[in-house]
Structure formats: C-alpha cells, structure tokens
Design a protein that fits this description.
mainly beta; 6-stranded mixed β-sheet; 5-stranded mixed β-sheet; 6 helices; 38% strand; globular; transmembrane helix; KIB1-4_b-propeller; transmembrane
Length: 402
C-alpha cells in the first residue's frame, strides 16, 4: 500500500519461487537489470536462484562503444571511461572483457565494463630469435612492440588468473603470465591459427586446415612452452557436389559445449574460385552456406561429426565463441553477418540489408539472414561500387557477466 496515494501494489508480495521463475526466463541482460530494480524482494529473489540461471544472451558490437542485445535488438552504449588517458580506444570485446589500448602511453588492459575488473597486459612480446616464423618476418632476438589493432589481435582468452592467451594474425599463439612475466611470449606452433579455446585445463588451437593442437606453458619465470598435435587430419569436405569453378571457403571455430565437450564448427561457403566483389542475394546465400559440427575425440585422435547438439545454441565469432543452454533455440548456430558482408561489394546482403547476425538450424539445415542491425552504421572493410576502400569496426560478440 502506498500511504500517499492509497495504491496497493501486489508485485512485492509475489512468492519468491514465482518471481525467481520469471527472472530465469529473461534472456536479456537488460531485462534482468530492470527486474532487479522493481523492488527489494525481487532483487533478493534474483540473488537466491539455485541453480544459477543460464547466462543472458550476448550483445553484438556495432562500433567501438555501441552494442545491440539479443533477442530484442536494444541498443546499449558503453563509453570509454573518462579516467583513461586521452586517445584510448576500445579494440574489441573478448567474452565478457573489453580491450582498451592507449598506444601513446604503451598501455593496454582488459576490463569488464559491468564488474570493473581489470587485467593489465604487456605492450611488448619477447623472442629468443630461434622461431622460424619470426625470422621470416625479420624479427630478431629481444623485445618487440605488440600491435593491438583489430586486424592484428584475433582473439584473447583469459584462461585463469595466471594465464592469458592470444592469437595474433600471421604469427600464431602468444601467452602471458600475469605476475610472472613482463612481456608476451610466443607459443610454438603453426603460423596461421583459426581459433583457440581453453578446455580441461589446457589451451587448444585449430589450424586453417582443421588440425588440433594442445599447448603447455612453463610455470616459472622462463618463457618456454611446447605444442603437440592432437588431431592431424581434418574432416573430409563434400567435393562431389562442387560446381565447376567453385571451392569451399572455410573457417574453423572451437567451442566448449554446455555438456563439457570440445567442439569444432566448420563454417563453409560454396565460393567461386575467380572471385570479384559483387552483390550477394539472400536467396542464393541460403543455398551456398553450410555449417558442420564435430567433437574432438581425444582418445582416438580424430574428429567425430555431431548431428544434434540438443538444448544448446552455439555463438561463433572471431574474438569469442560460446555455447549457451537455450531450450527454445536448441540446435541453432549463430554467426556474425560480417562473415558474409565483408565479401559483398556494398557491404550488405541484398534482400536483407546490413545483417547483424545469421542463424543456422542444424535440424533442417536452413539459414536465417533476416536480422538487421538496430542503428545505421558505416560501411565495413570492403571495396565499394567505385572501387574505393572503406572501413567499419569489426563485429564481435560481447557476453555480459558480473
């Protein structure tokens, strides 16, 4: 009862078990925040949920400070903190972390914009000069400046409080041990790495050819590491149905499933060999793009194809891939529209427009492309109608967490 207006509100008296059920059914992080703000009783009910509710759906980075949440398309602004040095920029989102780079001060760190947790990262990497890949790039022994630009850092994984790993385009896997090392170190392995994932207490990487490697890192002050091949043979590709003049344009993602399995998703596009940037239409793309899921059989050292992933959905991205328990969206695979639009002459899918993300249904092998962005944004890195080059911020998933 409101003493001033004599209006009684029933919401605070809703039994905690019922309000808790409502809270667990909210897939949006923004809706969960608004739920907690209704009253003290609802805030308490949200905190008392056991088991914990599934993580909220991710946000999609539209530019350096703007995000679009799933499934409602709500736009969130995350400005660069005012206390950071002038010129600091956000270089991307990695799981629940944002990467901030101040090149003038040679400072870089990860920050959780919700909890404000922070991990300082070195601005240099160390080479002993023995790695062949560095000799090829003309890098000698000693310290070298790290590049945190979007076209350099493909992925950063916080494996544990004392281990951070990164994929640097053209080089491979680097690692850093906070509190032990003052620089990044190169983790020996293949030069071109598609993805990495921390699984079972170890870091795994997958090459552009679908090979799986496991990395081990020294615990002491030295920078040593080793890499072993786990699976040396990629799953075969369907080449019988390739049209003349076409090939499979592929990329690989590693995802740890909700049931504790290490999965590899092969994203493939039936693509012309002699390609020129042109317009792509939604109807033809639905026929040309396929996704395959495989489980790493570590004992038999092979990939086993998975036809059904059950009541979970996979979210694929260069900077982060993740599995979430979503019974209403089971067997769905979400991937970023940039996978396609970066190869479109005008940066859009005709019949759809500026596509934020796409959804592949494993049950019926269909592809949904009708997920437009919530705001107008600038063109992406591609060739325009007049051959000019224009650039847009890379699209990333951001998984809000407290």
């Amino acid at each position: 009862m409101d003493d001033d207006e004599g209006v009684w509100s029933p919401w605070p008296d809703l039994p905690p078990e019922l309000s808790g059920m409502v809270f667990c059914r909210l897939p949006s992080y923004g809706d969960r925040l608004r739920f907690r703000a209704v009253c003290r009783q609802w805030r308490h009910a949200a905190r008392q949920q056991h088991p914990l509710p599934p993580p909220p759906l991710p946000w999609l980075a539209l530019d350096r400070t703007t995000y679009q949440s799933l499934p409602d398309g709500e736009v969130h602004r995350v400005p660069i903190p005012g206390e950071l040095p002038t010129g600091t920029v956000c270089r991307g989102s990695f799981d629940g972390w944002l990467l901030y780079d101040s090149s003038e001060q040679l400072e870089c760190f990860l920050m959780n914009p919700i909890s404000k947790a922070k991990i300082d990262l070195p601005y240099h990497w160390y080479s002993d000069g023995d790695e062949t890949i560095f000799r090829d790039y003309g890098e000698g022994e000693g310290q070298h400046t790290m590049s945190f630009r979007e076209n350099a850092v493909r992925k950063i994984v916080v494996c544990s409080p004392d281990l951070v790993a990164a994929v640097i385009a053209g080089y491979g896997v680097f690692f850093h041990r906070p509190g032990m090392h003052s620089t990044w170190s190169f983790a020996a392995g293949s030069g071109f790495v598609c993805d990495i994932a921390f699984y079972g207490g170890k870091l795994y990487s997958v090459s552009k050819n679908g090979e799986l490697f496991v990395h081990e890192f020294s615990i002491g002050e030295d920078h040593s590491s080793r890499v072993d091949t786990v699976i040396d043979l990629a799953p075969p590709l369907d080449k019988d149905n390739l049209r003349q003049g076409y090939y499979w344009l592929t990329t690989f993602y590693l995802v740890v499933s909700c049931t504790g399995k290490l999965l590899m998703v092969r994203w493939r596009w039936h693509f012309p060999k002699f390609y020129y940037y042109r317009r792509w239409f939604a109807d033809e793309l639905r026929k040309e793009i396929k996704l395959d899921v495989f489980e790493a059989d570590l004992e038999r050292r092979r990939w086993s194809q998975v036809k059904d992933i059950g009541d979970q959905a996979l979210f694929l991205g260069t900077t982060c891939s993740k599995a979430l328990p979503l019974p209403d969206h089971g067997n769905w695979i979400f991937f970023l529209g940039l996978n396609i639009t970066k190869l479109c002459s005008d940066g859009i899918i005709h019949g759809v427009g500026d596509c934020a993300y796409c959804v592949y249904d494993m049950k019926n092998h269909t592809l949904r492309l009708d997920n437009p962005v919530s705001i107008n944004r600038e063109g992406l890195l591609s060739y325009g109608s007049e051959g000019s080059l224009f650039q847009r911020w890379r699209a990333d998933w951001f998984f809000p967490c407290e």
